[in-house]
Protein backbone atom coordinates (compact mmCIF):
# COMPACT_ATOMS: atom_id res chain seq x y z
CA UNK A 1 0.00 0.00 0.00
CA UNK A 2 2.88 2.35 0.81
CA UNK A 3 4.38 1.72 -2.63
CA UNK A 4 1.05 2.38 -4.33
CA UNK A 5 0.67 5.63 -2.38
CA UNK A 6 4.17 6.79 -3.34
CA UNK A 7 3.59 5.90 -6.97
CA UNK A 8 0.33 7.85 -6.92
CA UNK A 9 2.18 10.90 -5.62
CA UNK A 10 4.82 10.47 -8.31
CA UNK A 11 2.18 10.36 -11.05
CA UNK A 12 0.55 13.49 -9.65
CA UNK A 13 3.88 15.35 -9.63
CA UNK A 14 4.61 14.32 -13.21
CA UNK A 15 1.18 15.50 -14.32
CA UNK A 16 1.69 18.79 -12.49
CA UNK A 17 5.06 19.31 -14.17
CA UNK A 18 3.46 18.74 -17.54
CA UNK A 19 0.76 21.33 -16.90
CA UNK A 20 3.29 23.90 -15.74
CA UNK A 21 5.46 23.32 -18.81
CA UNK A 22 2.52 24.07 -21.06
CA UNK A 23 -0.57 22.10 -22.01
CA UNK A 24 -1.09 21.21 -25.65
CA UNK A 25 -4.75 21.91 -26.52
CA UNK A 26 -6.88 18.96 -27.48
CA UNK A 27 -7.81 18.45 -31.10
CA UNK A 28 -11.38 19.29 -31.98
CA UNK A 29 -12.47 15.73 -32.64
CA UNK A 30 -15.27 13.57 -31.36
CA UNK A 31 -14.41 11.60 -28.27
CA UNK A 32 -13.91 7.85 -28.75
CA UNK A 33 -17.23 6.07 -28.99
CA UNK A 34 -19.25 9.18 -29.92
CA UNK A 35 -19.54 8.47 -33.63
CA UNK A 36 -22.72 6.70 -34.82
CA UNK A 37 -22.22 2.95 -34.90
CA UNK A 38 -23.25 2.76 -38.55
CA UNK A 39 -20.46 5.19 -39.44
CA UNK A 40 -17.94 3.16 -37.43
CA UNK A 41 -18.98 -0.06 -39.16
CA UNK A 42 -18.69 1.55 -42.59
CA UNK A 43 -15.26 2.86 -41.63
CA UNK A 44 -14.17 -0.59 -40.50
CA UNK A 45 -15.13 -2.14 -43.82
CA UNK A 46 -13.35 0.62 -45.75
CA UNK A 47 -10.28 0.30 -43.53
CA UNK A 48 -9.81 -3.34 -44.53
CA UNK A 49 -10.76 -2.96 -48.20
CA UNK A 50 -7.86 -2.82 -50.66
CA UNK A 51 -10.22 -1.50 -53.36
CA UNK A 52 -9.84 1.84 -51.59
CA UNK A 53 -6.29 2.25 -52.96
CA UNK A 54 -5.73 3.52 -56.49
CA UNK A 55 -4.42 0.24 -57.86
CA UNK A 56 -6.43 -2.04 -55.57
CA UNK A 57 -3.25 -3.48 -54.04
CA UNK A 58 -3.31 -2.31 -50.41
CA UNK A 59 -5.76 -1.34 -47.68
CA UNK A 60 -5.28 0.84 -44.63
CA UNK A 61 -4.96 -2.47 -42.76
CA UNK A 62 -1.91 -3.42 -44.83
CA UNK A 63 0.15 -0.96 -42.78
CA UNK A 64 -2.03 -1.00 -39.66
CA UNK A 65 -2.46 -4.53 -38.29
CA UNK A 66 -4.62 -5.10 -35.23
CA UNK A 67 -2.37 -7.71 -33.62
CA UNK A 68 0.52 -5.21 -33.84
CA UNK A 69 -1.39 -2.36 -32.22
CA UNK A 70 -2.35 -1.18 -35.71
CA UNK A 71 1.30 -0.68 -36.63
CA UNK A 72 2.94 -2.96 -39.22
CA UNK A 73 6.16 -4.44 -37.81
CA UNK A 74 8.32 -2.93 -40.56
CA UNK A 75 11.11 -0.38 -40.39
CA UNK A 76 9.11 1.79 -42.77
CA UNK A 77 6.00 0.87 -44.78
CA UNK A 78 5.57 0.81 -48.54
CA UNK A 79 2.76 2.53 -50.37
CA UNK A 80 0.42 1.26 -53.07
CA UNK A 81 3.12 1.53 -55.74
CA UNK A 82 5.74 -0.29 -53.68
CA UNK A 83 7.75 2.86 -52.91
CA UNK A 84 8.99 2.96 -49.30
CA UNK A 85 7.60 5.77 -47.16
CA UNK A 86 9.82 7.98 -45.03
CA UNK A 87 8.72 7.20 -41.49
CA UNK A 88 7.79 4.27 -39.32
CA UNK A 89 4.10 3.36 -39.08
CA UNK A 90 2.67 4.51 -35.73
CA UNK A 91 0.09 2.46 -33.87
CA UNK A 92 -3.49 3.71 -33.93
CA UNK A 93 -4.96 2.74 -30.57
CA UNK A 94 -6.29 5.72 -28.59
CA UNK A 95 -5.31 8.10 -31.40
CA UNK A 96 -8.74 9.69 -31.08
CA UNK A 97 -7.57 11.03 -27.70
CA UNK A 98 -4.43 12.69 -29.05
CA UNK A 99 -4.05 16.32 -29.99
CA UNK A 100 -1.27 15.88 -32.56
CA UNK A 101 -1.06 12.81 -34.73
CA UNK A 102 2.11 12.60 -36.79
CA UNK A 103 5.82 12.22 -36.24
CA UNK A 104 6.66 15.76 -37.34
CA UNK A 105 3.74 17.91 -38.47
CA UNK A 106 2.14 19.95 -35.70
CA UNK A 107 -0.61 21.17 -38.02
CA UNK A 108 -2.19 17.72 -38.36
CA UNK A 109 -4.51 17.62 -35.33
CA UNK A 110 -7.60 15.85 -36.67
CA UNK A 111 -7.88 12.25 -37.75
CA UNK A 112 -9.74 13.42 -40.83
CA UNK A 113 -6.72 15.49 -41.87
CA UNK A 114 -4.28 12.63 -41.44
CA UNK A 115 -6.51 10.14 -43.26
CA UNK A 116 -6.88 12.51 -46.21
CA UNK A 117 -3.10 12.79 -46.38
CA UNK A 118 -2.76 9.01 -46.43
CA UNK A 119 -5.31 8.75 -49.22
CA UNK A 120 -4.14 11.56 -51.48
CA UNK A 121 -0.45 12.27 -50.81
CA UNK A 122 1.43 11.74 -54.05
CA UNK A 123 5.12 11.97 -53.11
CA UNK A 124 5.54 9.22 -52.19
CA UNK A 125 2.04 7.80 -52.56
CA UNK A 126 0.48 5.90 -49.70
CA UNK A 127 -2.96 4.84 -50.93
CA UNK A 128 -2.28 6.77 -54.13
CA UNK A 129 -5.87 7.85 -54.76
CA UNK A 130 -5.06 11.29 -56.21
CA UNK A 131 -6.14 11.25 -59.85
CA UNK A 132 -8.10 8.00 -59.41
CA UNK A 133 -10.87 9.26 -57.16
CA UNK A 134 -13.79 8.35 -59.44
CA UNK A 135 -12.38 4.94 -60.33
CA UNK A 136 -11.92 3.96 -56.70
CA UNK A 137 -15.43 5.01 -55.71
CA UNK A 138 -16.87 3.18 -58.73
CA UNK A 139 -15.17 -0.01 -57.52
CA UNK A 140 -16.76 0.38 -54.09
CA UNK A 141 -20.19 0.97 -55.62
CA UNK A 142 -20.15 -2.55 -57.06
CA UNK A 143 -20.36 -4.00 -53.54
CA UNK A 144 -24.04 -4.29 -52.46
CA UNK A 145 -23.07 -4.14 -48.80
CA UNK A 146 -21.71 -0.64 -49.28
CA UNK A 147 -24.97 0.57 -50.79
CA UNK A 148 -26.68 -0.18 -47.49
CA UNK A 149 -23.82 0.94 -45.25
CA UNK A 150 -23.30 4.36 -46.84
CA UNK A 151 -27.02 5.07 -46.62
CA UNK A 152 -27.14 3.95 -42.97
CA UNK A 153 -24.06 5.93 -41.99
CA UNK A 154 -25.16 9.18 -43.65
CA UNK A 155 -28.98 9.07 -43.87
CA UNK A 156 -29.32 12.82 -44.41
CA UNK A 157 -27.10 12.85 -47.50
CA UNK A 158 -28.67 12.70 -50.92
CA UNK A 159 -25.38 11.28 -52.21
CA UNK A 160 -23.00 10.04 -49.50
CA UNK A 161 -20.55 8.61 -52.06
CA UNK A 162 -17.94 11.29 -51.59
CA UNK A 163 -14.37 11.26 -50.38
CA UNK A 164 -15.33 13.50 -47.51
CA UNK A 165 -17.77 10.88 -46.27
CA UNK A 166 -15.25 8.08 -46.81
CA UNK A 167 -12.77 10.07 -44.74
CA UNK A 168 -15.41 10.72 -42.06
CA UNK A 169 -16.21 7.02 -41.79
CA UNK A 170 -12.56 5.97 -41.62
CA UNK A 171 -11.95 8.57 -38.89
CA UNK A 172 -14.95 7.27 -36.94
CA UNK A 173 -13.53 3.75 -36.99
CA UNK A 174 -10.03 4.84 -35.98
CA UNK A 175 -11.51 6.98 -33.22
CA UNK A 176 -13.25 3.88 -31.85
CA UNK A 177 -9.95 2.02 -31.37
CA UNK A 178 -9.64 2.16 -27.59
CA UNK A 179 -7.04 0.27 -25.54
CA UNK A 180 -7.44 0.97 -21.84
CA UNK A 181 -7.68 -2.49 -20.25
CA UNK A 182 -3.97 -2.88 -19.53
CA UNK A 183 -2.44 -4.30 -16.34
CA UNK A 184 -1.16 -0.78 -15.68
CA UNK A 185 -4.67 0.72 -15.98
CA UNK A 186 -6.14 -1.94 -13.73
CA UNK A 187 -3.42 -1.35 -11.14
CA UNK A 188 -3.42 2.45 -11.14
CA UNK A 189 -7.04 3.33 -11.91
CA UNK A 190 -8.97 0.32 -10.64
CA UNK A 191 -6.98 -0.62 -7.54
CA UNK A 192 -6.07 -4.15 -8.63
CA UNK A 193 -2.84 -4.60 -6.72
CA UNK A 194 -2.12 -7.94 -8.37
CA UNK A 195 -2.55 -6.60 -11.92
CA UNK A 196 1.15 -5.71 -12.08
CA UNK A 197 3.92 -8.19 -11.33
CA UNK A 198 6.52 -7.21 -8.76
CA UNK A 199 8.96 -6.69 -11.62
CA UNK A 200 6.56 -4.35 -13.45
CA UNK A 201 5.97 -2.38 -10.23
CA UNK A 202 9.70 -1.88 -9.86
CA UNK A 203 9.85 -0.85 -13.50
CA UNK A 204 7.05 1.67 -12.97
CA UNK A 205 8.99 3.23 -10.08
CA UNK A 206 12.12 3.41 -12.24
CA UNK A 207 10.21 4.90 -15.16
CA UNK A 208 9.01 7.85 -13.07
CA UNK A 209 12.21 8.21 -11.05
CA UNK A 210 14.19 11.49 -11.33
CA UNK A 211 17.28 9.59 -12.43
CA UNK A 212 15.68 8.21 -15.59
CA UNK A 213 13.16 11.03 -16.12
CA UNK A 214 11.11 9.00 -18.63
CA UNK A 215 8.04 10.62 -17.08
CA UNK A 216 9.13 14.10 -18.14
CA UNK A 217 8.03 13.31 -21.70
CA UNK A 218 5.84 10.22 -21.33
CA UNK A 219 2.95 11.25 -19.10
CA UNK A 220 -0.28 9.49 -18.27
CA UNK A 221 -2.76 11.66 -16.40
CA UNK A 222 -6.02 9.70 -16.17
CA UNK A 223 -8.50 7.65 -18.17
CA UNK A 224 -10.69 9.48 -20.72
CA UNK A 225 -13.61 9.83 -18.32
CA UNK A 226 -11.40 11.60 -15.77
CA UNK A 227 -9.27 13.97 -17.82
CA UNK A 228 -8.57 15.51 -21.19
CA UNK A 229 -5.66 14.48 -23.42
CA UNK A 230 -2.74 13.80 -23.56
CA UNK A 231 -2.43 10.06 -22.94
CA UNK A 232 0.95 8.43 -22.30
CA UNK A 233 2.72 11.21 -24.13
CA UNK A 234 2.91 14.92 -23.49
CA UNK A 235 2.76 15.28 -27.27
CA UNK A 236 5.68 17.66 -27.51
CA UNK A 237 8.36 17.25 -30.14
CA UNK A 238 11.75 16.29 -28.74
CA UNK A 239 15.16 15.83 -30.34
CA UNK A 240 16.56 12.65 -28.82
CA UNK A 241 19.33 11.96 -31.30
CA UNK A 242 17.47 8.94 -32.63
CA UNK A 243 17.53 8.06 -36.28
CA UNK A 244 20.02 7.49 -39.07
CA UNK A 245 18.11 8.98 -41.99
CA UNK A 246 18.49 12.57 -43.31
CA UNK A 247 14.98 13.31 -41.99
CA UNK A 248 15.20 16.59 -40.05
CA UNK A 249 11.85 16.22 -38.33
CA UNK A 250 9.68 19.15 -37.32
CA UNK A 251 12.05 21.67 -38.93
CA UNK A 252 10.95 20.45 -42.35
CA UNK A 253 7.44 21.68 -41.59
CA UNK A 254 8.18 24.81 -39.56
CA UNK A 255 11.35 26.01 -41.28
CA UNK A 256 12.74 26.76 -37.82
CA UNK A 257 16.31 25.55 -37.27
CA UNK A 258 15.51 25.08 -33.57
CA UNK A 259 13.09 22.29 -34.59
CA UNK A 260 15.77 20.22 -36.32
CA UNK A 261 15.54 16.49 -35.48
CA UNK A 262 12.54 17.01 -33.22
CA UNK A 263 9.92 14.27 -33.46
CA UNK A 264 6.72 13.61 -31.57
CA UNK A 265 6.93 11.77 -28.26
CA UNK A 266 4.82 8.67 -29.01
CA UNK A 267 2.05 7.24 -26.83
CA UNK A 268 3.04 4.06 -25.00
CA UNK A 269 -0.06 1.88 -24.64
CA UNK A 270 0.56 -1.32 -26.62
CA UNK A 271 4.16 -0.19 -27.17
CA UNK A 272 5.45 -3.73 -26.66
CA UNK A 273 3.78 -4.91 -29.89
CA UNK A 274 4.66 -1.95 -32.12
CA UNK A 275 8.36 -2.62 -32.83
CA UNK A 276 10.53 -1.42 -34.47
CA UNK A 277 10.81 1.96 -32.75
CA UNK A 278 11.57 5.63 -33.39
CA UNK A 279 10.45 7.73 -36.35
CA UNK A 280 12.62 5.76 -38.77
CA UNK A 281 12.21 2.31 -37.20
CA UNK A 282 15.95 2.25 -36.43
CA UNK A 283 15.70 0.59 -32.99
CA UNK A 284 14.39 -2.99 -33.27
CA UNK A 285 13.43 -3.82 -29.68
CA UNK A 286 12.51 -2.28 -26.34
CA UNK A 287 15.89 -3.42 -25.06
CA UNK A 288 17.56 -1.42 -27.86
CA UNK A 289 15.44 1.63 -26.96
CA UNK A 290 16.49 1.45 -23.30
CA UNK A 291 20.15 1.07 -24.24
CA UNK A 292 19.83 4.04 -26.59
CA UNK A 293 18.63 6.24 -23.72
CA UNK A 294 21.15 4.73 -21.30
CA UNK A 295 23.90 5.87 -23.69
CA UNK A 296 22.54 9.40 -23.86
CA UNK A 297 21.22 8.91 -27.37
CA UNK A 298 24.48 7.59 -28.79
CA UNK A 299 24.04 3.83 -29.09
CA UNK A 300 21.93 3.35 -32.20
CA UNK A 301 21.57 7.07 -32.96
CA UNK A 302 23.00 9.16 -35.78
CA UNK A 303 26.40 10.80 -35.40
CA UNK A 304 25.90 14.01 -37.39
CA UNK A 305 27.13 17.04 -35.40
CA UNK A 306 23.84 18.90 -35.97
CA UNK A 307 21.81 15.95 -34.68
CA UNK A 308 24.02 15.60 -31.60
CA UNK A 309 23.87 19.35 -30.91
CA UNK A 310 20.08 19.30 -31.15
CA UNK A 311 19.71 16.55 -28.55
CA UNK A 312 17.50 17.58 -25.60
CA UNK A 313 19.37 18.05 -22.28
CA UNK A 314 17.23 15.33 -20.68
CA UNK A 315 18.85 12.80 -23.03
CA UNK A 316 21.95 12.68 -20.85
CA UNK A 317 22.22 8.96 -20.17
CA UNK A 318 21.96 6.83 -17.02
CA UNK A 319 23.12 3.48 -15.71
CA UNK A 320 20.92 0.41 -15.44
CA UNK A 321 21.66 -3.04 -14.17
CA UNK A 322 20.41 -6.01 -16.16
CA UNK A 323 17.72 -6.55 -13.53
CA UNK A 324 16.56 -2.94 -13.75
CA UNK A 325 16.41 -3.12 -17.53
CA UNK A 326 14.32 -6.29 -17.20
CA UNK A 327 11.97 -4.51 -14.77
CA UNK A 328 11.51 -1.54 -17.10
CA UNK A 329 10.64 -3.84 -19.98
CA UNK A 330 8.17 -5.70 -17.73
CA UNK A 331 6.52 -2.36 -16.98
CA UNK A 332 6.35 -1.38 -20.66
CA UNK A 333 4.84 -4.78 -21.47
CA UNK A 334 2.22 -4.10 -18.78
CA UNK A 335 0.96 -1.27 -20.99
CA UNK A 336 -0.41 -3.85 -23.43
CA UNK A 337 -4.17 -4.28 -23.72
CA UNK A 338 -4.36 -7.89 -24.94
CA UNK A 339 -8.12 -7.71 -25.45
CA UNK A 340 -7.79 -4.78 -27.84
CA UNK A 341 -5.46 -6.81 -30.05
CA UNK A 342 -8.18 -9.46 -30.45
CA UNK A 343 -11.35 -7.39 -30.19
CA UNK A 344 -13.68 -8.51 -33.01
CA UNK A 345 -15.15 -5.00 -33.22
CA UNK A 346 -11.79 -3.85 -34.61
CA UNK A 347 -11.12 -6.90 -36.78
CA UNK A 348 -11.25 -7.59 -40.49
CA UNK A 349 -14.92 -7.82 -41.59
CA UNK A 350 -13.91 -9.84 -44.70
CA UNK A 351 -12.79 -13.14 -43.12
CA UNK A 352 -13.68 -15.21 -46.18
CA UNK A 353 -13.28 -12.54 -48.82
CA UNK A 354 -10.69 -13.02 -51.57
CA UNK A 355 -9.31 -9.54 -50.93
CA UNK A 356 -8.34 -10.29 -47.36
CA UNK A 357 -5.50 -12.80 -47.95
CA UNK A 358 -3.86 -10.32 -50.34
CA UNK A 359 -4.00 -7.60 -47.72
CA UNK A 360 -2.55 -9.89 -45.11
CA UNK A 361 0.15 -11.27 -47.41
CA UNK A 362 1.41 -7.77 -48.21
CA UNK A 363 1.35 -6.78 -44.53
CA UNK A 364 3.80 -9.47 -43.46
Overall pLDDT level: 86
CATH homology-level superfamily of the largest domain: Cytochrome c-like domain
What is the annotated CATH architecture of the largest domain? Orthogonal Bundle
Our count of helices gives: 15
Biggest sheet statistics: 2 strands, antiparallel
Give the DSSP E fraction (strand runs of 2 or more residues).
under 5%
- Structural class, from helix and strand content? mainly alpha
Distance between the termini: 45 Å
Low-pLDDT residue spans = 1-33, 227-231, 356-364
CA-based gyration radius: 21 Å
Number of domains: 2
* Element string (H = helix, E = strand): HHHHHHHHHEHEHHHHH
Shape: globular
Helix % is 25-40%
Describe this structure in words.
It contains 15 helices and 2 strands. The chain folds into 2 domains: 179 residues, Cytochrome Bc1 Complex, Chain D, domain 2 (Orthogonal Bundle), CATH 1.10.760; 164 residues, Cytochrome Bc1 Complex, Chain D, domain 2. Helices cover 38% and strands 1% of the residues. Helix 4 packs across helix 7. The N and C termini lie far apart (45 Å). The protein has 364 residues and is mainly alpha-helical. Strands 1-2 form a two-stranded antiparallel sheet.
Amino acid sequence: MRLAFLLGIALFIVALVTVVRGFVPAAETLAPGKSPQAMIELGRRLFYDQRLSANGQIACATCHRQELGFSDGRVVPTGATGVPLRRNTPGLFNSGELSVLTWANADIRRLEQQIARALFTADPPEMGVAGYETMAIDRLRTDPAYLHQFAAAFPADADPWTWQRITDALAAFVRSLAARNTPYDRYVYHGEDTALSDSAKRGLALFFSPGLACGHCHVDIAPPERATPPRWSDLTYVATGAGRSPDRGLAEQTGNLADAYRFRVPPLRNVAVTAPYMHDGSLPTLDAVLRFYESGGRQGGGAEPERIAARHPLIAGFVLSDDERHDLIAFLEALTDEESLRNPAFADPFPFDARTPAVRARSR
